[in-house]
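Re: the multi-chain job from yesterday

Posting the exact lines I submitted so nobody has to dig through the queue logs.
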Amino acid sequence: MSAFDQDQNLNNIIKVAREGDLAAFEQLVTLFERRIFGFAFRHVSNREDAEDITQDIFIKLYKKLGSYDSTQGFTTWLFTIATNTIYDFLRRKRAKPELLIVDDPDAPFETKDTHDAYISVEARVDVTEGLAKIKPVYQTVLLLFYRDELSCEEISDVLKIPVGTVKTHLARGRSALKNVL
Amino acid sequence: MTQDIGQTIKEMTEIEFPAGLHGKILRQILFLRFRTPFLVIVTLLVGNLLFSGIRIWQRILDSEGLATLGLLWETLEFSFKGGMQFAHDAYDVLPIGYIGLFLVNLLVFLYVAFYVPRAFNRMASRKPLTVT
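And the result, structure tokens for all chains:
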């Protein structure tokens, strides 16, 4: 199926889903659930949290589908919801610093900042772990650009920032990731 | 190196999608979709059940039903005629319609309370639709 036909197919599914057809909505879920879960997981590095976030994203999608503006790309719009949901989650976590409990019962409890929670305890650093070490907005831009193949203009729509800022984040994200790898 | 970074990100291994997450998502959506009618129906059924129960109890109290039914039971003749007489006299204390309505309400409530969540789970546990 050509890209045009795929777009037409997606538009048809969206149209029917907006009319309340649950089977069509399920098709949307099936189409995007893996990408959304992967996107969420790479931001929070925790499967349970990523599952909760993924559910929240699709619930929001269901509630907001009626207000979707078809002049905007659906993928862009969905990733806007996804990004906002992930950042809301991260902000809530930031408000409640994580307690890190170590195996040694005599060791004191440590309070870690949420950003530090991204840091892996393993010495080996690969790309996944490297991404977790850089700023969330750099993670987002790198993932959307390379993994989800959105253009800078689309990323600008997702994050509601200028295209120039997207390009800056892209460059800085690459540089930051190079430094940690 | 820029190309390598981009290529490396592209080639990251796919995160394994959790089994059961698709079902969880659909269950939540189904609940959202049918929450209001489900709550309205359950509220009406519970209200009706309580109302039927209160009416029966009121009727029993008004006609000193418990004492009457006790007396009828003590004087019951265990035969077809005796049984019919008991039913006839008991009907004066508590019309069969009241009992019938209460039992129907109870059955419908139990059906909705047990069947609907299982139907939700069944709908959410189907294999994901194949998207063409």
